[in-house]
Write a sequence for this structure.
């Protein structure tokens, strides 16, 4: 039996032994950690040492990745190899590297299959449009371009070279870049702008397009169609706003109601809505647009020195009513549709029409208007005309029209809101499948002047999706200023043709004369009976028309034969 002293001594001895073992274990662990750290440092040093196997492995991995990217870029570029002439867009980007020899093109042969240039503000879509217009002009193809913001007037003047621009040209496959200007015509909607004034008559504009410009609903549009029908049938040319007002006031009067018996009528309430809309349009400058001389489509399809003339439309007095501007451009397109002959497929288009801010064309549009836009876009390609829409989101374009657009050039999209996310997802689904890019990520990662592209090949099949860096325009990437535009417009041969307004006899004068003749007959009949010739009633229709200040301008000319209805196209516009 041990004593307490012996047990205490044994315990001390056991504790000392445990402490010794723990110290040895800690020392062993520290040595192992140091050895591991030394080994890791040695491995890293070996990888980076000159001639080491590690560096060779890293270099080999990088070379393999670069080779894969180059192979992917060339595979994409193979889909853009064209036998005939083509527009050069830029170079393929794969793996954050631009491949200058991997070119992205649009075949000239499929430019009449239409296209879309889309992207958020500031992403470079205007410069893309500028580059497309330049190359079309250089190939002898006229271009009609809506320049709502005035950003594209620099097309008329050579660009300014700098190191950054030249580097961009080289990396996008255009090492021979040189500044160059192109033949341009500057025209304005109406007489209130700085360009050559361009007009249309009410008769040729037609009820569907005019209803879009006036913001009428479908019932009011139907009534306006009836008014146009009656005017056509009675040989009354509607040249300007006062002509249309005169007809509306006549048809809501006693004699007009009799004329409409059997084909419907014009209610006073609907007539009042239309008349108020006409007043608002006039206040916004619409009275300067409707009239004569009317634009002739042939003036949009000219060449100069072998280059296609670029016609740039600016807002003019319609700055407060941009929808009027876009509707006018649709009238120009409809006029081209009905005047140009069928030509089928051509090696290059006869004309390319570019709608900037295209969403304005479709905002608030009636079903009839949308149907006619779809039909016009679908059929006009056989006339050799290509149509490109330029807007922020592809969803701005109705699906039936979007499905007609063969070329897609999509600049960066923003996805800040749920609506933006939905638009992004819809946009991705409109592109062919690609194993090279994550399109949803790519569309929000594109740099300025970069775009995701797919077009129709010369065989009519979609090309592979390409992330492209777009080549820079050769003309001035800035405006030439209002004075520069005004000077060029006044020196144009078109100014002598369209610069002066023509005011001739039309519906207003004819109806006024008719009412005055009726009043004289009634007065003569009353005098024959010995009665005193009555003074005209203050509120008579004749007084309203004759004394209205808006009806005291100049005379208009009717250009139609009485009793013969004017034939109309799919938009209800007059056939020439």
């Amino acid at each position: 039996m041990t004593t307490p002293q012996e047990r205490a001594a044994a315990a001390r001895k056991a504790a000392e032994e445990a402490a010794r073992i723990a110290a040895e274990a800690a020392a062993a662990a520290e040595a192992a950690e140091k050895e591991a750290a030394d080994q890791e440092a040695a491995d890293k040093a070996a990888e980076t040492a000159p001639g080491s196997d590690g560096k060779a492995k890293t270099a080999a991995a990088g070379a393999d990745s670069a080779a894969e990217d180059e192979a992917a870029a060339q595979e994409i570029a193979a889909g853009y190899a064209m036998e005939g002439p083509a527009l050069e867009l830029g170079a393929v980007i794969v793996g954050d590297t631009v491949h200058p020899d991997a070119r992205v093109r649009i075949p000239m042969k499929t430019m009449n299959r239409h296209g879309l240039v889309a992207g958020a503000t500031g992403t470079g879509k205007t410069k893309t449009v500028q580059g497309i217009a330049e190359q079309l002009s250089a190939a002898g193809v006229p271009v009609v371009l809506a320049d709502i913001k005035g950003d594209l007037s620099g097309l008329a003047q050579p660009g300014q070279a700098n190191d950054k621009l030249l580097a961009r040209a080289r990396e996008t496959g255009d090492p021979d870049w040189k500044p160059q200007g192109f033949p341009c015509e500057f025209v304005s909607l109406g007489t209130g702008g700085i360009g050559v004034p361009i007009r249309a008559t009410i008769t040729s504009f037609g009820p569907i397009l005019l209803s879009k410009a006036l913001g009428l609903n479908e019932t009011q549009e139907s009534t306006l169609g009836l008014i146009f029908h009656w005017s056509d049938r009675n040989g009354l040319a509607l040249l300007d706003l006062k002509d249309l007002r005169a007809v509306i006031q006549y048809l809501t009067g006693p004699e007009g109601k009799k004329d409409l018996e059997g084909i419907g009528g014009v209610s006073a309430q609907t007539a009042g809505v239309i008349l108020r809309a006409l007043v608002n349009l006039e206040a916004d400058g619409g009275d300067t647009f409707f009239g004569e001389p009317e634009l002739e489509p042939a003036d949009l399809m000219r060449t100069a020195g072998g280059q296609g003339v670029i016609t740039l439309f600016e807002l003019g007095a319609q700055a407060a009513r941009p929808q009027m501007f876009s509707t006018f451009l649709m009238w120009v397109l409809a006029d081209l549709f009905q005047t140009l002959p069928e030509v089928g497929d051509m090696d290059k288009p006869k004309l390319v029409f570019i709608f900037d801010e295209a969403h304005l064309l479709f905002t608030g549009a009636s079903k009839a208007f949308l149907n006619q836009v779809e039909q016009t876009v679908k059929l006009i390609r056989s006339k050799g005309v290509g149509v490109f829409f330029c807007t922020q989101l592809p969803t701005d374009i109705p699906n039936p029209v979007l499905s007609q657009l063969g070329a897609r050039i999509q600049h960066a999209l923003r996805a800040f809101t749920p609506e933006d996310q939905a638009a992004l997802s819809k946009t991705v689904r409109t592109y062919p499948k690609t194993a090279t890019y994550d399109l949803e990520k790519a569309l929000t990662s594109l740099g300025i002047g970069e775009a995701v592209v797919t077009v129709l090949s010369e065989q009519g099949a979609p090309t592979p999706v390409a992330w492209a860096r777009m080549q820079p325009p050769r003309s001035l990437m800035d405006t030439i200023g209002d004075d520069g535009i005004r000077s060029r417009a006044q020196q144009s041969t078109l100014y002598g043709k369209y610069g002066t307004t023509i005011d001739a006899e039309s519906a207003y004068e004819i109806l006024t004369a008719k009412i005055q003749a009726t009043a004289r007959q009634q007065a003569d009949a009353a005098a024959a009976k010995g009665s005193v010739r009555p003074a005209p009633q203050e509120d008579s229709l004749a007084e309203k028309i004759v004394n209205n200040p808006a009806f005291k301008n100049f005379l208009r000319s009717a250009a139609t034969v009485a009793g013969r209805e004017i034939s109309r196209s799919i938009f209800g516009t007059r056939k020439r």
Summary: Residues 4-48 form the longest helix (45 residues). Confidence is low (pLDDT under 50) at residues 548-566. The longest strand covers residues 97-107.
